[in-house]
Amino acid sequence: MTSCCSLSHLLLAATRRLEAAGIPADEARAEARLLLQAALGLSREQMYLRPDADVDQAGAARFDSLVARRGRREPLAYITGTRAFYGLDFTVSPAVLIPRPETELLVEAALRHLEGVETPRIADVGTGSGCIAIALAAHLPRARAWASDISPEALEVARANAERHGVAGRVTLAEGDRLKPLAASAPFDTILSNPPYIGEREVDALMPEVRDWEPRVALTPGDDALAFYRHLANEAPPLLAAGGLLAVEVGQGQAEAVAALWTEADLKEVNILPDYAGIGRVVRGIAR
User: Which family is this protein grouped under (predicted)?
Assistant: First the structure.
């Protein structure tokens, strides 16, 4: 098969294309490398050990197609079809929000709370890819999780991820809005959610990878950015076991307002957990 050019040549050219598309230089090179690995089926080690290896024309064409997609600001995770979260690889598609590192704080808060609970019962509201429920089920072998989403397409992705990580028998997926499809399975030891929390008028200011590609229903609840939290404050406490945890991810600047909703809902020990940048990112409270 006719060779085209070397790995290093393709990598340099792709990095420049991505920079020209508005992607920061350090991200552009890293992402070009990941796209090249995906196009050619190479490991990171193979890329480093043989930078001058020749690439055939078919491989170069596959790579060019992937770079063109990223140049249109399609998220890398949608192109490669996977994203790492809490030590596990999750299948993702445009039907689901791409898992973020900040959401791992929600998983950590739940794990701390569930220490000593023999058979934890977990609810995940707006599960998307299933990353929260599945990560917890994978780390807590005796746990059962119930996860809801309004999108049947998202639930298909979550189902594939549950099967991928061997927890499908302990993660029940239900289609419907918020806690409604999960209520019959209460009480829960913890109810978790990374809900839509961006106000409708703020969506246009988001990065194009988010604004133009991720599911809008997973980003915004409408004009009232706190709408989902207001519903949870009303619906979740009666479904928690005594001492159960209600914890949610929140947007920047929202933590105090959500904490006030938790207090008004008569939850105790309400507090705010910061993310790695010191921004209030998780609000938690305990049922009486």
Answer: Belongs to the protein N5-glutamine methyltransferase family. PrmC subfamily.
Residue 132's domain spans which residues? 82-286
CA distances from 64 to 16, 26, 50, 55, 147 (A): 13, 20, 20, 12, 38
Q: Is 152 annotated as a binding residue?
A: no
194 is in an annotated binding site: yes
CATH code at 245? 3.40.50.150
State the Cα–Cα distance between residues 264 and 164, nearest whole angstrom.
40
Phi then psi dihedrals of residue 76, to 5 deg: -55, -40
Q: What is the pLDDT of residues 12-38, one digit of tens each?
A: 999 999 999 999 999 999 999 999 999
Any known ligand binding at 197?
Answer: yes
Separation of alpha carbons 29 and 13, rounded Å: 10
CA–CA distances in Å: residue 245 to residues 4, 108, 165, 194, 254 = 57, 12, 25, 14, 19
- Do residues 109 and 167 both lie within one domain? yes
Residues in the chain: 288
Q: What is the pLDDT of residues 219-260, one digit of tens each?
A: 999 999 999 999 999 999 999 999 999 999 999 999 999 999
Same domain, 158 and 128: yes
Three-state DSSP at 278 gives coil
Q: Is the CB of residue 13 less than 8 Å from the CB of residue 60?
A: no
8 A C-beta contact, residue 98 and residue 77 = yes
pLDDT for 202 = 94
* Residue 70, both tokens: 């990223």
* Percent of the chain residues topping a pLDDT of 90: 91
User: What is the number of other CB atoms lying within 10 angstroms of the CB of residue 231?
Assistant: 18
Q: Is 3 annotated as a binding residue?
A: no
